[in-house]
Amino acid sequence: MGSLRVRQESGQLFLDFKYLHRRFREQTTLPDTPANRKRLQKVLDKIEVEISLGTFDYQMTFNKPLAASGNACESEAAALDTSAPQQQTCATPLFKDFAMTWYAECEVSWRRTYRVTQLGAINQ
User: If we measure between CA atoms, which residue out of 60, 29, 27, 32 comes closest to residue 46?
Assistant: First the structure.
């Protein structure tokens, strides 16, 4: 279930909802007033109905591709956009690769015994 929220820094309303098991927060330029809340609540209700019916089109609703939301992985956006090539992937490294990079960057500041301990934890 989505909600209307207010950005504390600017006092502007934004939509907060879940789509494709991800949370989306779409910003507006509308100030927090009762009339604007009522207006955006109608939009949010329409979005939720379309999501539940399976007819929601993110690009048509927000006039930008799903990948531009900053919340979706490129491969998910490509899977939804039939005109996009299906070869894009997320650039998330494997945990082992990330851990070894972290270890290599930090080991210069550690004592030898601590390096052995950390490397043992990574290898397990």
Answer: 60
